[in-house]
Amino acid sequence: MSLLGKRLTRVLLSSSILCFFAVFAGAAENTSQIVQVKIGAILASNQGDEFDARLAPLEKQLRVMKYRSYRLLKEESQKVQRKGNATFEIPGGRSLVVTPQDSGTKQLALRVHLQQGGKPLIDTTVRLNSGGNFLLGGPPHEGGALVISISATAQ
Amino acid sequence: MTMMKRCEDIRDRIGAWMDGELSRSGAEEVRVHLESCPACCEERRQLEKLQASLRAVLVAGPSNVSFERFWSGVEQRINRKRVWHEDFFGWARDLSTPPQLAWLVPAVIILVLMGVFSLESFFPGSRLAVRRNNFAAVESIDGFGRNVAVLRENETKTTIIWLYQNQEGEDESTGEKTDASPSF
Amino acid sequence: MEFSDWDLVQKCQAGETSAFQELVSRYQQKIFMVVLGLLRDREDSMEVAQEAFFRAYRKIKGFKGGSSFYTWLYRIAVNMAIDAQRRQKRNPLEFRENMDGVLEEQNEVEKDPFSNAHDKELRAGLIAAINDLTAEHKAVIILRTVEGLPYRDIGEILGCSEGTVMSRLHYARKKLRGKLKAFL
Questions:
Q1: Model ipTM value
Q2: Residues B6-35 pLDDT 10s
Q3: Which chains border B (3 or more CB–CB pairs < 8 Å)?
């Protein structure tokens, strides 16, 4: 290997390492105020054996509940500032309010409030990894149960 | 040191002594021992015979090996036009010699791991990105009088918050009836 | 005026191919003998030796004089010879006797040390025993027996410590003696 080749190799290797560190450092130091909240309202029931193909990414999670049928009723995504409210209309006259709390970039704390006809059904604060999700279910709907998948990603 | 252990120690060093690689004191120690130990002396004799045999087998007389055309063979290689991939494979081969491998292999592994873990930053939600622990931690919960269950399923790393109906089996506000209950 | 190896290396780095030719001329025989000791085939050894010099030519600009030129050169040649052994379709450790009359020539010059039947058996046994050594153990035996190199230089060539050279030699000799006990 010529001297130039060795230098070039060292430069390329050092640059690659620095680039990757920059990505990590960037990711770590970025405390963006914007959070993208995505919800999916799903009807879970034992009527029929349908599995909505749009729910494929969530299949493993949904099958935990052992319903026979899952249908996506609604999907919506909103960007919201931390401490701001993202409000989603949920089938059955319900509404879901998601409020990202102050936290880091890798982990998010979400305050989730579900109400129906002005009456609160559940209020919970959940901490999850950015990009992760959890399921909130139980309210009856059309002979089955409503399951809401809630995910959030720090921008 | 017992006699046997002493002989063992000397025998371990006879080869190096014959090669002239021991320190002065070490060499003297071996020499003195050999003068008085027939067993170790025999060991030395065998080694000397082995050395002589090895030389006879390995060191061929070069009298009929001509080196006249040796340089022209090297020169031909120097002047030959090489295609790009020969250079690349040569470079890769140089990198794969043991001393370089010692740092190259861990360096490559670290870079690959860093790349995989940083995929999430470049392609958020990508399938290729390593799935982090998806468990969500429930910090507080208020069911407003209803029973609530929190389930964490290990295999799929799923967190499920389940709001149970009232005991009457219908929802107060909507009047909806349902007999569908999950079976976790 | 005779230039030192380092002077010739520097001239070579400056682009003087004639300086490299001088280096080839100085070491061609030694390199050939070491490679021959490992490969035991004259044609192959010639090829590998020439290729080793060619590789040294391509890498010479990167040679900083941290070691002596000849240990650096030997290192290239030994690694290539070991690689060549591994590339062979047959048993990579096979110690072939394809010397094309080199040994016959030697018999004309000096008495063949294996002239009687007993010694001929010893030689055959020795060849088989060397075949059984790993590439690293074979290399130390060759470098010590053929070139008489000190342990420090052998260590530099093989990329290991003097202590490792000593223990490899000790192990290799012990193994060879174990297999040839009846003859020694």
A1: 0.80
A2: 899 999 999 999 999 999 999 999 999 999
A3: A, C
